[in-house]
Design a protein that fits this description.
Oligomer: single chain
Number of helices: 8
Number of strands: 6
Order of helices and strands: HHEHEHEHHHHEEE
Structural class: alpha/beta
Strand content: 15-25%
Radius of gyration: 18 Å
Distance between the termini: 34 Å
Helix content: 25-40%
């Protein structure tokens, strides 16, 4: 923890670098990814402050849309699309994902009931080889399911229909640093 504290102490000593951020934000991308500490959107993309609007959830899950009981995730997506006017939404899954791995393997999650119940939002259950520690197939299938789920959000559906929004599915390998994007024409995740 101490190195993090030390950096935080010196971080604010360059106010001229951050003054423009007080004027507001206008990110072009909503980046939805896992809460996993090995996944750092700004590091992966090279984004500077103000360039990415981030939504991080366990397993990069996009919950079902419901207007009668909105969630923080739903509010974040709606704000990014309607208020910030992002032009792209990236759902980025990653190798060695604990959440997707637990789903693929059918792990008993009774000891962590909030996690267990949150992961029910991942349906359908991702498929892939149980013995693969990277859970690559499961994660990639899961990313595609979350992109499909995003399409059910009214704000996303409207912007997709009028061509003002694109959805992208990414797969990040934590052990190599490589990023692949789903290509509709080949229905495969290919290197960017």
């Amino acid at each position: 923890m101490q190195p993090l504290i030390d950096n935080a102490r010196t971080f604010g000593q360059r106010p001229e670098e951050f003054a423009r951020l007080a004027e507001g934000q206008s990110p072009e991308v909503l980046f939805i990814t896992c809460s996993d500490s090995r996944v750092v959107p700004a590091l992966i993309t090279g984004a500077r402050p103000g360039e990415l609007f981030e939504l991080r959830t366990a397993g990069n899950i996009v919950p079902p849309y419901t207007s009668d009981r909105p969630t923080g995730e739903t509010a974040t997506i709606e704000y990014a699309v309607e208020v910030l006017g992002v032009t792209d939404i990236v759902v980025c899954g990653h190798s060695h994902c604990g959440a997707v791995g637990a789903l693929v393997r059918g792990d008993d999650l009774d000891a962590v009931p909030a996690v267990r119940d949150w992961l029910t939002n991942a349906t359908p259950r991702p498929e892939g080889p149980v013995e693969d520690p990277t859970v690559a197939d499961g994660v990639q299938n899961h990313v595609l399911s979350q992109l499909l789920r995003l399409r059910s959000y009214p704000c996303v559906e409207k912007r997709l229909a009028d061509g003002r929004l694109r959805l992208r599915g990414w797969y990040y390998e934590v052990h190599t640093g490589s990023v692949r994007e789903h290509r509709a024409d080949s229905d495969k995740f290919e290197t960017l």
